[in-house]
């Protein structure tokens, strides 16, 4: 695994142009969400649908150039970025199916968390309106927390832990989903079950180690960003670092899958 981590770092640094579409999409998406936030319900629904179509187009091209970089680490930057439209054309529909499946999965996990939380933990006597008011500003949040009893705080912490573990588990089971779509199976429904088979197969503990590494990396960056992010210089630095982290993780997951589930010696396994 450590060899793959080093290789992925080398691929990312040697093909840092991979981060360019990510930065542009983040900028465009932010501006789009700002200008499309106003309007009636129908307009908001159309805006959300259009956003997901944009997101699908981005992921199609972005993962395609990541795969190209993993297969051909020495590929020139201008050739690599020129492959972006090819990825959109070839993988747009499979990626939209993948996004749909992931959304359904998150909804199902969310419903399971609500059901399990109500059965195992119970409510904590706070209305949805109170929670919204408490999150309006720092002072309101502080006053809200101080008004809670120890029992309520314990239940809130239990709910948070339940949601955290559910979120981590969901991210873990979809970790190789994009790689499967781009490497082995374009059908997003078949690809999901293939990714489950590979995730929970004989390399399960190695996969868990990779996931822990990714989450630890994310925790360190997030913690430093919260502590130092108020300074405008550090805020800029950590913004760039976040883009680098996302790019590196994309390369790492695809390269790990390619090295562990595709390569057999010097041959490439294309079977499912």
Overview of the structural elements:
The protein contains twelve helices and two strands, in the order H-H-H-H-H-H-H-H-H-H-H-H-E-E. The longest helix has 37 residues. A two-stranded antiparallel ribbon has the order 1-2. It is globular and about 60 Å long. It is mostly helical and 272 residues long. Helix 3 crosses helix 5. Strand 1 and strand 2 form a beta hairpin.
Instruction: Please indicate the percent range of residues in DSSP E strands (runs of 2 or more).
Output: under 5%
Number of helices: 12
- Radius of gyration based on Cα positions: 21 Å
Unreliable stretches, pLDDT < 50, 5 or more residues? Answer: 265-272
**Order of strands across the main sheet:** 1-2
- Rounded average pLDDT: 85
Order of secondary-structure elements: HHHHHHHHHHHHEE
Amount of helix = over 70%
Shape: globular
Quote the distance from N terminus to C terminus.
22 Å
Structural class: mainly alpha
User: Strand count, sense and closure of the main sheet?
Assistant: 2 strands, antiparallel
Per DSSP E runs of 2 or more residues, the count of β-strands stands at 2
Mind sketching the topology for me?
Layout: H1 2-14, H2 19-35, H3 41-71, H4 77-82, H5 84-120, H6 128-134, H7 138-146, H8 150-173, H9 177-183, H10 188-199, H11 204-228, H12 232-262, E1 263-264, E2 267-268
Antiparallel strand pairs: 1-2
């Amino acid at each position: 695994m450590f060899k793959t981590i080093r290789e992925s770092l080398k691929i990312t640094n040697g093909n840092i142009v991979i981060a360019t579409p990510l930065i542009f999409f983040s900028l465009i998406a932010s501006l789009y969400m700002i200008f499309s936030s106003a309007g009636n319900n129908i307009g908001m629904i159309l805006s959300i649908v259009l956003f997901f179509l944009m997101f699908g187009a981005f992921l199609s091209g972005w993962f395609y150039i990541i795969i190209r970089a993993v297969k051909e680490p020495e590929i020139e930057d201008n050739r690599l970025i020129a492959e972006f439209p090819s990825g959109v054309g070839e993988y747009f529909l499979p990626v939209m199916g993948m996004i749909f499946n992931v959304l359904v999965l998150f909804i199902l996990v969310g419903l399971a968390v609500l059901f399990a939380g109500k059965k195992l933990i119970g409510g904590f006597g706070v209305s949805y309106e109170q929670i919204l008011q408490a999150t309006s500003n720092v002072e309101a949040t502080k006053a809200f927390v101080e008004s809670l009893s120890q029992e309520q705080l314990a239940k809130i912490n239990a709910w948070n832990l339940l949601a955290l573990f559910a979120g981590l588990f969901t991210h873990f089971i979809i970790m190789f989903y994009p790689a499967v779509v781009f490497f082995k199976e374009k059908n997003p429904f078949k690809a999901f079950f293939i990714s489950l088979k590979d995730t929970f197969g004989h390399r399960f503990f190695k996969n868990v180690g990779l996931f822990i590494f990714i989450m630890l990396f994310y925790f360190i960056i997030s913690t430093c960003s919260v502590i130092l992010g108020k300074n405008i210089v550090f805020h800029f630095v950590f913004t760039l670092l976040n883009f680098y982290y996302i790019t590196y993780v994309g390369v790492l997951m695809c390269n790990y899958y390619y090295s562990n589930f595709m390569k057999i010696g010097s041959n490439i396994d294309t079977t499912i």
